[in-house]
Amino acid sequence: MSGAGRALNRTKDWTRRAAERVRQQLGPDRVVRRRPCWGGITVAVLCYCLSLTPSLLPRAWWLQGLAAGVSAAVGYAVGAVLEQLARLLLRWAGARVRPRVRRVLWTALGLLGAAAVVTVTAWSVRWEGQVRRAVTLPPDIVWWQWAFVPVVAALVGTLLVLAARTVRLATRLAAHAFGAHLPRPVAYATGVALAVFVIVGIVQGFLLRGALDAIESAASLADQGTAEGVHQPGLSTLSGSPESAAPWDTLGAKGRDFVGTATPRAGIAAFTGRPARDPVRVYVGLRSAGTLDERAALAVRELERTGGFSRRILAVMGTTGTGWINDQGSKPLEYMWGGDTAQVAMQYSYLPSWVSALTEDEAADTGRALFDAVYAKWRTLPAGSRPRLLVYGESLGSFSMESALNGSLATLVAETGGALFVGPTYDNPLWKSVTAQRQPGSPEWRPVVGDGAHVRFAQVPADYGIPAAPWGEPRAVYLQNGSDPVVWWSPALAFHQPDWLDRPRARDVSPAMQWYPLLTFWQVACDLAGADSVPDGFGHRYGTLPTSAWAQITTPPDWTAADTARLSGLLESVHEPGLLD
């Protein structure tokens, strides 16, 4: 016999001996049932069906299958626990389920469960069409792809249940091992604690840490790159230029994008028909200085060097996770004010927003340090010659800027000349505060705050006129779509029905969408994956709406609604950031 054959035989013998030792140790008490439990499958089928009901955004078939599979696995766990409780109650009452009744229950479950899965999967095509219509997408979907939804769901659900049973097996093995030296309850508790410790250690120390390390490594490499067509600027009004104290190679990829795509003076003049200035854009990257305070101080020095404090508009910009600033938020100011603008931003991470959101403190601290440093210098200027101080942020950038204002509307009114927040997150402190204080009867997706003197919410330009009361100064605008999961996803969604699902609903939320405990939380979490895969004006895509918002906030001289429409048309091709930016 060859060496490979002898090694194979030894492996088989070792496996048989190990299995025999496990059987001897466990005895007749089975760890894994020979078949799934009736209660688990029943609730799993129910959760599968509910997971196909409408959510905020349309989904690809594979994403719907994944969501349904996870929902079914959770449902199986809940059903298994409920069945075990029912067994204990029946045993306590001295009753038992007869074999014939069991057979009837299993037969009914098989027939009704299969019928429910087929019927709801087929019906969900219609629900999906309703969601697609709500975001102006064609309602038709590829039916044969949707037929794979239950297949993917079954595969995902089975794998999750098997993983859970493996954990249960490991727990019981540990409990039996400790049982030789400890009382049975203590041994079992020790086995559970050991299993939890090992699982958490593996997930956090190996899987999660390894995944984050891989993401961080990839993001760090991407941050050192430069997009095609972006070159080091020669203008002294831009960071990264030869005169700049923030070297070009320290700005990060998104910082180089920001300063390298500043609107040229000639382009502004061609649009306005009047002479224009070269806009000021200041950006400080993570590698531009060693500490947060040093980076904030460098940003102020850059504003001084470039003449930013002598411009008519000075905007402090919050960035997304990778340091991105949406051109849809920055370019309109430069066109509206003839280039007589300065914009300043600081990088706090090079990780994607969905990862950076796990460490919100970095965004908050950076926003606060930057704004405080700029504001401190701005206050020293003569009141009659100060630029108008604005703040802007999109998504996690809006969280950064709200934190800079201590989440206070009074601070915003006292210290700024206006603010634009696009697609705020559920954790934005000011957003939460003003939304909670909305007028009774005004919907959460478009709240009316006080008499609308300072803060207004919009999904379309017509919303700026709600309420009809006069709009004072300074003005703050929140742009938030009714179908934006970035705005509406929150941990509270797991156990509390949200107000944004009350009637009337936003125009882009399907009337068939319902709230279910835990399931809706998971559905909206899955919607995050497709938040940027819809047309402008839906999901997390706001298109050129910031143009009309800035026109309302800053009221440029001699600016008309026709100018806003013309500028929006010019900027339609500008790329919006995604959740991975």
TrEMBL record:
Segments traversing the membrane: 37-56, 62-82, 103-123, 143-164, 185-207
Classification via Pfam families: Abhydrolase_9 (PF10081), Abhydrolase_9_N (PF15420)
UniProt keyword terms in alphabetical order: Membrane, Transmembrane, Transmembrane helix
Residue ranges annotated for the Alpha/beta-hydrolase N-terminal domain, each copy included: 52-261
Chain ranges of the Alpha/beta-hydrolase catalytic domain: 280-567
Highest taxon listed in the record's lineage: Bacteria
UniProt signal peptide: none
InterPro entries cross-referenced by the UniProt entry: Alpha/beta-hydrolase_catalytic, Alpha/beta-hydrolase_N_dom
Protein name: Membrane protein
